[in-house]
Design brief:
Helix content: 55-70%
Number of helices: 8
Radius of gyration: 20 Å
Low-confidence stretches: 1-14, 192-197
CATH topology of the largest domain: Rna Polymerase Sigma Factor, Chain: A
Number of strands: 0
Shape: elongated
Structural class: mainly alpha
Distance between the termini: 70 Å
Order of helices and strands: HHHHHHHH
Largest sheet: none
CATH architecture of the largest domain: Orthogonal Bundle
Mean pLDDT: 79
Length: 197
Amino acid sequence: MGLTGDLPTASSDGFDETRLIEAVRRGDAAAFDVLVRRYMRRAYAVAFRLLEHREDAEDLVQDAFLTALEKIDTFQTGRPFGPWFFRILVNRGRNLRTSRARRATLPLTAESAAPTASPAHDTERAELRTLIAAALDRLPERQRLIVELFELEGFSGAEIAAMLEMPAGTVRWNLHQARATLRKLLAPLGEVENYDI
């Protein structure tokens, strides 16, 4: 008999993940559904940052959850599920990115952004996004991923360290180095903003 009748919603922070994991190990599909709902939004955000393609990100998230379910017996009870799951997601995402490097993909365009009131504003924002994306692309892969996870997705340094299986100090150093590089690469933007054009 599983926990199905008394499972909380995904937003229930007080529910003990250890009990959820044990229920999943006993075959309780509803317990796994709670875990999926709890981590789905952030999983998709990370997957999209890794792959920059909606359908690939959706496939990656689905694959990562299925892998987590298949390997749930290897999960160390008492530890948080999130870092373990995100490590699976990031590792699979990196592998997918490496394997798809041979095929061409189209980058996101300005048209994929939500419309705003001013076409001039849209153009300015698209140009800024392009410049920032180009600056991020010039970073080493590890630094780019750390910046995106920290600055854009809101993961803490400790969460990123667990996800990428590296010391927290290494994450902080990479973040520091990446920010210094980005400041140099994006310095011309500050100079332009100081003049009336």
